Structures are given as C-alpha cells and as structure tokens.
C-alpha cells in the first residue's frame, strides 16, 4: 500500500518515537544485567588466574539495537553506512569495528551492538539517518551476550545446537540465530576458539544452568 | 569348577585380569574382554531364563544383538537397574550384578511348567486373546501373574543417578558397521578428507573378523583391522565410535547413534561423566555395512539349552576361548556352517557329526566335506536333526535323512548323543536400518534372504547386508562404497582403488531350508520354535494361517512373531518361510514385515539426555524475580514464565492472602509484575492499517498518546488473544498480548504480513524481554506515582484514562500507560528491564506509606473478574466470538478493508439465537463458590442426562463484594438476566445461582476514571 521509498515526503524519524531509556549519567540507579543474580563477578574473582577449557564472560549492559529494512533501499543501507561507518553484513555474517558490531539476523533484520552509554546517541543517529520504510528498535534490556572461549567450546556447542559448528561450515565471522538447547541464541564465531551467544533476558537463567551442566565434563572458568 | 569351559589359551581376553560378577546371587569369575554371555558359558551356566509363554528353560543361542534368550536385569543397586540387557552385548566388568529376566520365581523352578509341558493345545497362538480376555473383568487378575511370569524386566524404583547426554554431529559420510566392508569404506572415505563417522555396536572394531581365522593382505585378519584402525585414528576428519549402535535411520540422512560410554566399566559412571550418549547425526551420505545375522534351523525342541547358532559357537571359541559344551552335533545348509565344527574340533572337543542337509550325488563331495573327513569328523549328507532330547541341556538328538527339497524325511530316525547342537540355515542380511527409511526389502533366491530395496536416501550398501558373504567381496565392496560416498559428497577419490585382499574360497551352493520336517505332523511334533523370545512355534504359525490370517502382518500380530525386544532378528525369516509354505505361496508372494527404529532397545536416559530435572523445560523469569522470591511469593506457570501467584504472609491460608491482596488494591493500592505480558513493537507507514485488519475494532483514528483495547480473532471469528495497543507516534505502536500468547501472536502477525499482505509496510519486533512493567493500581495509585515520577503532571485532566506518557521515574526514563485490568485507577510503568528491579524496589519503598501490596496472578484474576474482564484462554476456548462475550462494542463492521474473523463470525451458526453467551452468576448462598468447569442446568431434578445450558469459566469468592462471583457461558444468556440456573455437583447437590451482568463492580467505570 504505502511506498515510502518513493515518497520524498516520508520522514522515518518523524513517524516514530525514539526515547533515551537510560538514566542520566549522574543518576545513582545502576543497571542490572539478566544474569545479575548469578553474581558472576564473585565467581570470577574466586577463579581468577585459573585456566579453563571453557572461559565464560558476560558482555553486559551493552546497547542492543535491532535494525529492520530492505537491502534494495539505498536510503536504508547508506544511512547505516553513514551512521556506523560500516556496511551491513551479508547473509549469516557479522562485522565489527572497534566497539560496534553488526550481526545479520534475517534477510531484513540486523542486530547492532554498541557500548551501553552510546546506545541512545547511536539509536537516534540511525533513526535520523535512515530513509524509507525501516525500523530501529532498542532491545538493550531484553538480551545479553555471553562470550565463550577455549578448546572445548565447540564440543559444548555440539551438545547444545543442532547446527554444524565445525570450522568448515562455521568459520570465524559467521553468525546464526538458532535453537540453543530448549531456547534460542544468536551465535557467532569471533575467533578460532571464541564464540559469542546473544541470549534473551527471560531465558538467561536457563542458559546459565545449561552451560554449567553442559560443561561438567570440561573445565568451566568464569572471567570478568 | 570355575570357568570349566575356558580354553587354556587363545581368545581376545586379558587372562591376567580376572574379574568377578554375580548372576542370580552367585559369584562367578571371568576375564576382561569377556561379554557377560561368554563368561556365563565359560562357567558352564546353561539356563539363563525361562521362556515367555511356556516357561521352558532357555540358554544362550547367539553371540550378538540377535540373542533372544539371555536377557538380563542388570544393576547392583535399585537406582542403577537396567532391564532387558542382552548378555551377549554386555561387556563384563568387575562387580557386575545381574539376574535372569525371565524366570519368576526362578530359572531352575518353573511355576508354569504344568502349562508348558502339556503343550500347544493349552496355549495356542492368540492364547492371551482367546483365554484371558474372558471374562473381561478377570483380565486384571490374570495379567499381573502372567506379566510377572513372562517377565520383561523392570524399571528402577529410584531415580537414575547417572548422566546421559546428546551430541549433535555432522558428517559427509557415516559408515554403519566396522567389519571388513565398513572398515574398508571408512579407510577410503577418510583418506579423501571427508568428515567420516564409523560406528559399531561391538566393543572393538572388526565385526566378523574378531573371531575369524582368515587372512587379509597376507596377515591375520585382526592384524589388518589393527592397521586400519591405527590409520583412521590418525585422521582428524574421522570419528570412530565403538560400543555405539546406530539404532535409527531417519529421514534426510539423520541417524541416531546410541553410545555406551561407561557401561563396560562399572555399575555407575563417575561424576560428571556421561554413562551413555546419543549422537544425533546429520550426514550427506550413508554406507550401510551392518552385516548379517545367522539364521537358525527350526526343529523339534530346538530351544533346549545347548542349541546354538553355528557362528556363535565359533565366536565363543575363537574370540573368548570358551567352548560351550563337550560333544557337538552340527547341522548346516551351507559351507560356512562347517567352521563351527572345525573350531570345536581344534579346541579339542568332540564333534559327534556334521549333518549337511544338502544331498550330494554319488561320490560327489566338496572342499569342506573333504576337510572334515581329513580331520576325522563324520559328515552325514542329506541329513538333519529332527528333534532334541533333554530339558535343561541337550542330551541327545534324533536325526533322519531328508529329501533334496528338505520337505520330507526319507529314512528312519536314529539317535546321537551330544550336549550341543549348532545349526546354520544361512545368513539374513541386517537390513533393519534400510527398512527404517521406508525402503521395502527385496527377496533374493540367491542370497536366500531379504536384501535392501530401492531407497530415496543418499545411501550405499556394502558387504553382507547386500547378501555378499565372502570376505574378498566384502573388502572390495566396502572400498568401493567408501570411495563412492566420499566422491558423492564432493571429495576427490579414486573410484578404482584396489581393496585389501583375502583368499577366495569356492563354495557349494547353499540350500534354502528353514523348517526341518518331523516324523509327526507339525501340530503333533515336539515344539519347533521359530521366535524363541515370544515362544512362537512352527505349529503356531501354521495354525494362524489355517485360521485365516493370510497377511504376514496379521500372522505377526496374531502369533507375536518378532514382537520381542530382539525384534525377531533370528526368527522372522523362518516364520515367513513357514507361513508361505503353509499357504502354498513363495516367500516374495507372502512378503515380509519390516523393521522400525530402534534396532536394539535404547535406555530412556539416552533418549532424554540432559533434558531432565531443572533443565526439563526452560523457566522464564522477569527482572524482578529475585524480589518475588525474597518476599515469599508462590509461583504459577504461565507459558514458560514463573509468575508470582500470590504473596502469602506467615500464617495465612491461600484464601486469606487473596482476600488481603484484593482488599488492599480496592482500598489503597497494589502492585503487580506485569513484565511477562507480550510486547510487540510495530513500526511502518501501514502499521495502523495492519492493526485494523488483525484486530476487530477500528484503529484509523487512534491519536498519538492514546491506548486502545483490542480483540484478536482467527479466520473463524473466534477470539484467540486480546490486549492493549498504544500509539507511540504516527507510524509507531506497541502492542501487548497475553503472557502465554506472545509468541503465537507475533507469528500470526508475521505470517499475515509475509504471506497475505506483503504490500503493507510494517515491521514487528518483540520487546517483551526489553521492558519491565510495574502495575500500580488502586485509589492511592496516583499518590504513589507522585512520589516516584519526577517530571510530569499526573492529574486526571492532563493524564487521562487510556493515555500513555513518557516520564522519568526515579531518574529512569519510562513510558507510563494509564490502563486498568482491575477497574481501579492504574498506571503501568515500563522501564528498560535492566532498571526494572531498582525501580520496583523504589516503588515499593515509596508505596509503603500507602500499604502498597504486591499481588500475584490469582488476585489479578479475582480483581478482573469483579469487573467482568475476560482472560483469553480461560474465558475463551476457541469457540466464542466477540458477540458471545458481550463485546460487540469492540467490533467495527464498518472498516473499509475488513478484518480477520469478520466473515467467520457472520456464519449461520455464529449468528443463531441460542448460542452460549458469557454472563455473570451470583449464587443464592453468597459464600458458595461454584467450582470452575461446573455445568449449568435449568432443572437439577431432571433425569440424567440433563439438558446442559453451559458451564462456569471463572469463579471466585470476592472479598470486596462479600459474595462469590462467577463468569459462565449460558445458552441465550444475554436474554436471561435475572433468571435462576443450577449447577449440579458431583456430590449430588446443586448450587443455585442468578444470571447477571458479568460486571459485578462499578459498572459505570467510575473508579478508574478519577
């Protein structure tokens, strides 16, 4: 019905509500990650210096922004390039530059992860720079990222994910959104033995339990 | 005498590692490298169980997965009990404890022998159907004893302490079976660089070579196996899985492999080590090299302990250095069977005679006959064992000569003394996995067996599964299949590569013989067993065909042929041949039953993997969950969410808690964690149009800053979800859904957008987990909000009912929705979930002065029922449309495009007069709460079946109103206000109630508009 790409009067930024969702910098209110209750920091302190075959750390309280748009719409793709300084990654690809990463999620969906304190600034810039029919959605409160590193991570993933995680079919830079045990995760290989899982807040306790259980035969060490 | 049947040398056993095991309470020695069966035979244990139906003593017959009798109950403790373990596949370990499964009260004394010995006339096939089903009422009594006497093992009464897990694997080529063909295939596929998995059910790779005296590449066969295994082990791309049974071959080359990781080590696995592992394998190509099972011959009393398969005898002698008897009579239809006699002879025991069922002309002879005669073994050609004597062990056999077709005896019966009868009727290819894929097996007269038929899978076969039984051909086929599979999967291979070489032996044609004739007709002869595990006899199969069961599937079900835990690996072909002969048909005409997964039994532990206990089902938590735990909440499961149900205080009953929470909300203020409700961010120039199509009401004019309630219907016009959607900006909305319906609604929107209305520009994104929602409700809600909201005017004039506003709550940006599910003044504070807990705590702290009371879902249910608000899924069941609910006000029939459900709810049945409609019920006795689900009737004295009017969907005691309230569907209820109905109860009473509006409290909505 609408054809906003070919409608010069259409102004995406004016049609949506984009709000800063973080407290002012001087506020005393702290953000609590979905795994706050697991108190990983204390475990990490206790395990400081230990070597594990699986090293787990939470990349918490980052800015998570979902981008929806059409790759055929130059007003969308060039707006992303302009704002983030990099092009949208292709199918099943993840790109990153300094402290910003973009994960391909589906043919019209990407996840942009940015430092927490810059999330509003970048969200707003995206909203302002994108043209045509698209969507920018802040989902920072709804998910967190776990980084897993070590020689046994691939085996752990084999126990959790039906998809093939062998380097031949899951090279560095690949990202998939897939079944993880009985929930889902956005899984990317960020190094030969390094992986990142983007998991949902409400399922994070389940994932944490699963990872501990799954690692029972390996050596799991938590790090900050 | 310990291990009296053990040879002093030979075998693949560690003689310096003597280990003890317990069988039926008695301790025996064995060696590392034994199976439980080989150790039992070494110790001269003849009887390992009692038969299923006749309770006859049974001994070990086979040496592998096909064993029908030696089915053990394993486990040293109650928690580690494992039923139905085949002794022939269980590796011996120190401290193994087992008991015979079939043999209550014990294997040596049989309670049912009186039945069994009287014979077939007492327990014919279909016996259970015919006898014990009548009188039907007695079946429960009979069943207990028969099941127990029959014995199929028992499950443990305590929780399994062991860990089982799943492993996902991906491969280019999966090879099933590590015999000569499988190993050759693995070698070629592995060398190509393909990702290869080779799995074998045995403890060691080698298959039939493990007990073979043949040579490969000029070296002993097992030396060749060792060299292949060493080469495979050095290849990173090859995974070797011994002790791993490929139990299922599913669609799209998905295979399930059951690996027994520690079953050979101890009764229990060590902590954190998986006892068993289920590999879930997806592969490009499959090579089936699963071999073949030797087929026994069917003759009288062929179940007496001491009757064995010929190749099993060779296996016990060569692999385990166990000779399972003293005097052997061998009966064979083929050259291969002779090997058992040669091995027996070489072990220094007496071979009484070889009975070759084939007829030879004049002085005609063969290589194996010549060899037997050289060794001084008597060979009787054209002869067969017709009957065995003995009960707990063979003591003698009756033999007779046979015509060349094998269907008539041609000479007198004579006797031979012996304690062991080995028989070989040829080999049945192990086509089970091929059958799993739906491929129909094909009969081959040359193979005398069924071989895999055409398949839709990317699958090759090699070796004995295809009816190729000589070693050289197996090696060649394996090599070729391995190279071909790798090539098909995209790897460079030499398809003409030479295979390992073995000596080729010329063989005399085997004879197709299944059932040895007896001087008496089959029905009067001693029992000739076809399926040992289920006590199916040749006479039983003939009787079944005479009774009119012509389809082999019916014969199978009537006789129970192939029904056991062994799935008829030994008996099926013989049974089909006997049925075919009885019906004067050929075997291809009769056809075959096919196999389904699993090839051998799989433990429930391996099937469940880690999906048990805490990990059985994910639990979803809101950001405030820890607070709920700390404050004593009880929880209700809503979808996968754990929602606070109510917050009992010390000493309170549930009802007291609910009344306190309800009154607090009505009198001052309550707070609810509403974070679990589904939240969907909707953006796009056509978002508004889309909402108008999926909701029943109008959305075109909803202004920015406003909220609206909507009903969502299926195409049939029936309500499936509801919720409030707020207009955040011109093209930007946030929709709320029920907690349990969130995923379904998002999917519903996506399906309609992607498949029906792709021209609408709109995007949907879930933000359920992103926002924490804190509902503050009650007459003092505004005062509490005043305390925590930093920056906006909360007065009724500026922040109206059904408005939303951006605000700052205790320093955190929020969206506040002034919507109400309680009928009270209500604000739903939404903050990013990372701040949910801290804001909740702040609200609680500031609300304390107003007795701000946390409440849960049960209180929420009462509060909304007082207002007549429905809960989709409780007050709807997929059969009610908005008008049934009395919510026609939420349907706009004037929308230009139509909406989902518009036509559905206009169907004839949907607009008829006397539909069941949602109404309120007030009981005559104010304290009486009608149980939910109760029926309503006009006349409680009417004879059953009464005329039903409808049923109660929601029912509570309302502390606020001082009487019980209920919501119910009543036929034509909207026109029956004020009338009396009755709700009959199970105890014979009937609860009287008056039909009323479901809005019990504040019908004008004044409390929420202050």
Number of helices of chain B: 23
Report how far the terminal alpha carbons of chain A are from each other. 50 Å
Uncertain regions spanning at least 5 consecutive residues of chain B: 111-121
Distance between the termini of chain B: 97 Å
Determine the mean pLDDT of chain B: 94
Report the strand count of chain A.
11
Largest sheet of chain B: 7 strands, mixed
Q: What coarse outline of chain B follows from CA principal-axis ratios? A: elongated
- Main β-sheet of chain A, in a few words? 6 strands, mixed
Whole-number average pLDDT of chain A?
96
Shape designation of chain A: globular
CATH architecture label name of the largest domain in chain B: 3-Layer(bba) Sandwich
Q: What fraction of the residues of chain A are assigned to beta strands by DSSP?
A: 25-35%
CATH class of the largest domain in chain B: Alpha Beta
Quaternary structure type: heterodimer
Number of separate helices of chain A: 6
Count of distinct structural domains of chain A:
2
Report on the architecture of this protein.
The complex is a heterodimer of chains A (224) and B (1010). By secondary structure, chain A is an alpha+beta fold. Chain A has 6 helices and 11 strands. Chain A has 2 domains: 36-60 and 142-222, Gyrase A, domain 2; 61-141, Heterotetrameric sarcosine oxidase (Alpha-Beta Plaits). In chain A, the strands form 2 sheets. A 6-stranded mixed β-sheet of chain A has the order 8-9-10-7-1-11. A 5-stranded antiparallel β-sheet of chain A has the order 3-4-5-2-6, with helices on one face. The mean pLDDT of chain A is 96. Chain B has 1010 residues and is of the alpha+beta class. Chain B is built from 23 helices and 49 strands. In chain B, the strands form 13 sheets. In chain B, strands 8, 9, 12, 13, 14, 15 and 28 form a 7-stranded mixed β-sheet that branches. Chain B has a 6-stranded mixed β-sheet with strand order 40-41-42-39-33-43.
């Amino acid at each position: 019905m609408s054809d906003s790409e070919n409608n010069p009067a259409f102004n995406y930024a004016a049609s949506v509500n984009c709000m800063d969702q973080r407290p002012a910098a001087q506020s005393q209110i702290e953000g609590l990650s979905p795994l706050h209750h697991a108190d990983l920091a204390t475990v990490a302190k206790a395990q400081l210096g230990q070597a594990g075959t699986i090293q787990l750390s939470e990349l918490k309280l980052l800015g998570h922004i979902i981008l929806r748009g059409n790759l055929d719409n130059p007003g969308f793709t060039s707006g992303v390039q302009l704002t983030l300084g990099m092009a949208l990654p292709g199918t099943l690809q993840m790109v990153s530059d300094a402290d910003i990463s973009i994960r391909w999620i589906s043919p019209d969906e990407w996840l942009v992860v940015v430092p927490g304190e810059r999330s509003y600034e970048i969200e707003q810039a995206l909203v302002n720079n994108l043209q045509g029919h698209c969507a920018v959605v802040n989902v920072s409160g709804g998910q967190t990222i776990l980084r897993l590193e070590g020689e046994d991570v691939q085996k752990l993933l084999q126990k959790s994910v039906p998809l093939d995680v062998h380097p031949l079919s899951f090279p560095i830079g690949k990202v998939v959104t897939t079944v993880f045990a009985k929930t889902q995760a956005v899984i990317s290989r960020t190094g030969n033995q390094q992986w990142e899982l983007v998991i949902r807040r409400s399922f994070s306790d389940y994932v944490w339990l699963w990872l501990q259980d799954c690692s029972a035969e390996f050596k799991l060490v938590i790090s900050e | 005498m310990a291990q009296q049947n053990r040879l002093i040398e030979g075998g693949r056993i560690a003689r310096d590692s003597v280990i003890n095991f317990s069988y039926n309470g008695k301790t025996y020695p064995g060696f590392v490298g034994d199976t439980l069966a080989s150790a039992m035979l070494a110790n001269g244990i003849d009887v390992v169980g009692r038969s299923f139906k006749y309770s006859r003593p049974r001994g070990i017959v086979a040496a592998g997965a096909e064993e029908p009798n030696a089915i053990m109950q394993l486990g040293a403790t109650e928690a580690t009990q494992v039923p139905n373990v085949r002794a022939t596949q269980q590796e011996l370990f120190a401290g193994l404890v087992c008991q015979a499964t079939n043999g209550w009260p014990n294997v040596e004394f049989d309670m049912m022998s009186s039945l069994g010995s009287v014979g077939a006339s007492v327990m014919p096939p279909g016996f259970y159907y015919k006898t014990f089903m009548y009188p039907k009422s007695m079946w429960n009594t009979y069943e207990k004893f028969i099941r127990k006497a029959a014995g199929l093992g028992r499950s443990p009464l305590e929780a399994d302490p062991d860990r089982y897990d799943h492993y996902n694997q991906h491969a280019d080529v999966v090879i099933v079976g590590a015999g000569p063909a499988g190993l050759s295939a693995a070698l070629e596929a592995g060398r190509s660089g393909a990702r290869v998995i080779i799995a074998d059910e045995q403890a060691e790779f080698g298959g039939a070579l493990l007990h073979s005296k043949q040579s490969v590449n000029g070296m002993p066969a097992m030396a060749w196996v060792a060299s292949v295994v060493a080469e495979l082990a050095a290849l990173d791309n090859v995974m070797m899985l011994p002790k791993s049974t490929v139990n299922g071959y599913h669609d799209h080359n998905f295979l399930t492999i059951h690996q027994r990781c520690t079953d050979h080590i101890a009764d229990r696995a060590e902590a954190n080590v998986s006892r068993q592992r289920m590999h879930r394998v997806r592969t490009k190509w499959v090579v089936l090299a699963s071999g073949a099972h030797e087929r026994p011959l069917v003759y009288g009393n062929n179940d007496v302990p001491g009757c064995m398969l010929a190749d099993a005898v060779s296996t016990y002698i060569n692999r385990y250095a166990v000779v399972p008897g003293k005097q052997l009579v061998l009966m064979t239809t083929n050259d291969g069977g002779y090997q058992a006699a040669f091995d027996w002879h070489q072990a220094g025991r007496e071979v009484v005679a070889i009975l070759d069922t084939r007829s030879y002309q004049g002085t005609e002879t063969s290589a194996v006959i010549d060899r037997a005669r050289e060794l001084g073994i008597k060979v009787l050609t054209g002869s067969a064992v017709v009957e065995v004597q003995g009960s707990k062990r063979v003591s003698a056999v009756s033999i007779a000569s046979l015509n060349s077709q094998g269907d008539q005896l041609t000479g007198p019966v004579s006797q031979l003394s012996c304690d062991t009868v080995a028989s070989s009727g040829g080999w049945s290819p192990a086509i089970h996995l091929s059958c799993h894929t739906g491929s129909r097996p094909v009969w081959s007269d040359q193979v005398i067996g069924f071989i895999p038929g055409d398949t839709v899978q990317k699958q090759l076969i090699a070796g004995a599964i295809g009816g190729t039984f000589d070693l050289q051909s197996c090696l060649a086929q394996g090599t070729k299949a391995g190279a071909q599979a790798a090539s098909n999967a995209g790897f460079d291979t030499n398809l003409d590569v030479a295979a390992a070489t073995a000596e080729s032996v010329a063989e005399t044609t085997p004879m197709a013989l299944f059932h040895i004739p007896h001087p008496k007709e089959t029905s009067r002869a001693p029992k000739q067993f076809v399926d040992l595990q289920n006590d199916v006899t040749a006479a039983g199969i003939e009787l079944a065909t005479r009774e009119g069961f012509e389809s082999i599937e019916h014969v199978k079900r009537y006789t129970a042929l192939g029904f056991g835990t062994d799935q008829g690996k030994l008996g099926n072909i013989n049974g089909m041949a006997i049925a075919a002969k009885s019906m004067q048909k050929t075997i291809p005409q009769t056809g075959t039953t096919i196999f389904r997964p699993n090839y051998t039994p799989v433990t429930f532990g391996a099937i469940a993997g880690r999906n048990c206990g805490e990990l059985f089902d994910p639990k979803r938590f809101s950001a405030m969950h820890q607070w709920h735990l700390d404050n004593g909440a009880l929880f209700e499961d809503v979808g996968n969410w754990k929602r606070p149900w109510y917050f009992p205080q010390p000493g309170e009953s549930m009802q007291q808690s609910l009344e306190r929470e309800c009154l607090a909300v009505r009198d001052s203020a309550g707070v609810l964690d509403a974070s679990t409700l589904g939240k969907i961010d909707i953006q796009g120039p056509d978002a508004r149009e889309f909402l108008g199509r999926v909701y029943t009401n109008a959305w075109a004019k909803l202004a920015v800053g406003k909220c609206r309630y909507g009903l969502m219907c299926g195409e049939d016009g029936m309500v499936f979800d509801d919720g409030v959607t707020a207009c955040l900006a011109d093209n930007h909305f946030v929709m709320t859904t029920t907690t349990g319906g969130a995923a379904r609604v998002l999917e519903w929107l996506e399906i309609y957008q992607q498949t029906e209305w792709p021209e609408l520009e709109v995007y949907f994104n879930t933000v359920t987990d992103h926002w924490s929602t804190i509902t503050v409700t009650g007459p003092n809600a505004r005062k509490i909000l005043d305390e925590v909201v930093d920056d906006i005017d909360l007065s009724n004039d500026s922040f109206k009912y059904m408005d939303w506003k951006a605000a700052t709550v205790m320093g955190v940006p929020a969206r506040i929705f002034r919507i109400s599910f309680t009928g009270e003044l209500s604000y739903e504070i939404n903050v990013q979930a990372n701040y949910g807990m801290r804001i909740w705590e702040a609200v609680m702290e500031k609300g304390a002065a107003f007795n701000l009371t946390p409440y849960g879902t049960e209180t929420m249910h009462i509060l909304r029922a007082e207002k007549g608000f429905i809960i989709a899924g409780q007050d709807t069941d997929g059969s009610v449309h908005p008008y049934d609910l009395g919510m026609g006000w939420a349907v706009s029939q004037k929308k230009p495009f139509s909406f989902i459900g518009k036509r559905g709810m206009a169907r004839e049945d949907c607009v008829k007069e006397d539909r069941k409609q949602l109404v309120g019920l007030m009981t005559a006795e104010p304290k009486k709460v009608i149980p939910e689900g109760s029926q309503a009737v006009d006349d409680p004295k009417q004879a059953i079946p009464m005329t039903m009017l409808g049923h109660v969907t929601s029912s509570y005691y309302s502390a606020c109103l001082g009487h019980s309230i209920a919501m119910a569907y009543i036929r034509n209820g909207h026109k029956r206000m004020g009338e009396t109905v009755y709700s009959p109860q199970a105890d014979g009473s009937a609860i009287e109630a008056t039909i009323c509006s479901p809005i019990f409290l504040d019908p004008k909505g004044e409390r929420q508009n202050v």
